[in-house]
């Protein structure tokens, strides 16, 4: 099978990381096109596409098929590569978890860009401080408690479904990593309350494909351009 | 087939409306449980569910299966009721459009609640004014242009795919309705630039099931508690 072409911003983990992780965990071949050819290549590729085009990266291209939106890409990969459970109820459940991760990711971005996605953080610091306070106090515990109960719902393994990993497990791993980077003091204070979620995180971290990926230069570090950004003034225990 | 149980806040269109519309258009039987039994019944039902539970309404229940997250519910209904196209590429495309609608809906909510989802609009009016200015100037045209190109990609009919309506067409209808309610001056100024999107809107409005629904008391009016809210101070041409 030829390699997928993954198109995403080349300098950040961002939403693209939710695609990279299961590709790496499953050993599926892909080319991270904008990392190979630069951001100009991504902009040119976006500009060229019309009609059934992506609204934004990430998107995955193969043989004329273009799939965009993270949860949609993941459901597609799961179906094509036997990475999903076989029952309808299980597949709906994983997609439900993934879409709830997506909701949290959008809220995370909103913390540092509450009033103007197109302007700099520095121009909305006061609003971001207010957004971060509520996010730390109310939203993080609400989401983490939810994912902890979700993880605990499967007594057979640390995974969300059955006895093997899925894309949604990878996404929970990335969520914990990102929140630890963005809110180290808050996470240190509360993450122990969510042992089932941390068990998913640790099980994903122990997958051979994920270990190899994180040891490689393919795994970009978190930075101040992505979704999860560490602004110390937005963190507190 | 027994009626679905739809659980959603009983006094708003909100995200639940994206489920109600295709149910009504297709004539699928459902009970809008919190409208029948009150918001306390919804809260009690949420409270009772553990494990594979919804994070938030809306969710759909039938025979022990519970499906949450709007796009996930819609894909499920399309599959179960032959409301989706048959090719994988078409199904991925519709879900991609739906998830982009979901992104816009989240941004719309953020306009009137930019810094604290749990607090009142009145306590974040200054921030909302700033968020609305950018949303009107940049985000509305960007999203509407995207959906217009998406609608134009199918030359065979006003619909997004083939020659029949799907849930994503219904969602584009609701988006236009909601934006007209929330930003009447802005929409009057620019909506004519998106004729293919408006053609989808008008085609959905003309479906017999939708006409009957809108003429009934099942269709709640827009109000100041839902996603789309009309605060005149946030609108401008």
TrEMBL record, chains A, B:
Signal peptide boundaries: none
Domain spans labelled GST C-terminal: 87-222
GO terms, molecular function: glutathione transferase activity
Origin: domain of life: Bacteria
Biological processes, Gene Ontology terms: glutathione metabolic process
Keywords: Transferase
One protein family per Pfam: GST_C_3
CDD domains: GST_C_Sigma_like
Entries under InterPro entries matching the protein: Glutathione-S-Trfase_C-like, Glutathione-S-Trfase_C_sf, GST_C, GST_superfamily, Thioredoxin-like_sf
PANTHER family: GLUTATHIONE S-TRANSFERASE
Protein name per Swiss-Prot or TrEMBL: Glutathione S-transferase
Organism from which the protein derives: Sphingomonas guangdongensis
